[in-house]
Amino acid sequence: MTTELNELAKGLSTGAHVTATGVDTRGRKVTRTGHLLADPVVVHARRNGFPTRALRLCVGAPGTDPTDRSSWTTLFTDSGTAEHTPEPDPTAWSNTELRYVPGVRASNPTTRIRYGGKGGARSTGPTQDTPVNVYYTDDGIYALWDPETDTTHGLVRLTTKIWWAPAPRPHTDNPDAAAPA
After folding, report:
1. Spacing of C-alpha 54 from chain mean position
2. Whole-prediction pTM
3. What are phi and psi of 93, to 5 degrees?
4. Could you tell me which residues come within 8 angstroms of residue 124 by beta carbon, excluding any fewer than 6 positions away?
5. Cα–Cα distance between 137 and 155 in angstroms, integer?
6. What is the pLDDT of residues 123-173, one digit of tens each?
């Protein structure tokens, strides 16, 4: 079985942009797209109540801590895939619900995107282009906050459709830039 897992991990290395389909730490099917944050590791995992060997991948946005369990994807030999995918085009805009933006979760205040305004069925394109941090405030509300100007551009829920594009990480020495004051 270890040979099959090593074959599954073949060609995957830290920093590669991948799409991995497997299970999360609760055993639920999950597909994660992002950078491989650490080399693949063969682990002992539980499946249907029985211990078995599996391959663990840490997939997420660059700079995410690989020990963050929300980045873990466990692949079993008979179910689970990992494949190289092209890097996202930083000029391409997406009109999706906030929950589909990679890295957005209540425990991660460092997700940074280019915010293009509210989306929806009648929205034809972005109305602005502002780099923002996505910050969980409370009660299921996320602030789209620009640390450069200390401006909140929107308060949205995970189900709110927005225009967004990947954004480069800010070059700042200010550790307090991760959350609004």
Report:
1. 22
2. 0.60
3. -95, 145
4. none
5. 9
6. 899 999 999 999 999 888 999 999 889 999 999 999 999 999 988 655 554
